[in-house]
């Protein structure tokens, strides 16, 4: 599962990371953000049943890890994240802060002294 396919989208209010993970157990998926880096990892194991012999094995098994850099100059806030796992698709959404308002010039009053 090293090459877990993913799409990365930027919306006006969030970044979305969408990954295909069919057959994954939800509690086997871990998501973490550190230093503007989103990491998603987990493991899918093959179920071994006694007396069963595989004639062909094409499905990917094992550990996986995907890392996605969050823009350093962005207004993404890792504290406001959500994750959804539905129909084998895992989606992580990282919210964005609204763009900062333009700075207004500061007016300074000047005192005039007459001697």
From TrEMBL:
Cited PROSITE patterns: SHSP
Cellular component, GO, one term: cytoplasm
UniProt GO BP: response to stress
The SHSP domain, residue ranges: 1-113
Subcellular location: Cytoplasm
InterPro entries named among the record's database cross-references: A-crystallin/Hsp20_dom (IPR002068), HSP20-like_chaperone (IPR008978), Small_HSP (IPR031107)
SUPFAM superfamilies in UniProt: HSP20-like chaperones (SSF49764)
Coiled-coil residue spans: none
Keywords: Cytoplasm, Stress response
Pfam families: HSP20
Top-level division of the source organism's lineage: Eukaryota
Family of this protein: Belongs to the small heat shock protein (HSP20) family.
Protein name in the entry: SHSP domain-containing protein
Species, as recorded: Vigna mungo
Lineage of origin: Eukaryota, Viridiplantae, Streptophyta, Embryophyta, Tracheophyta
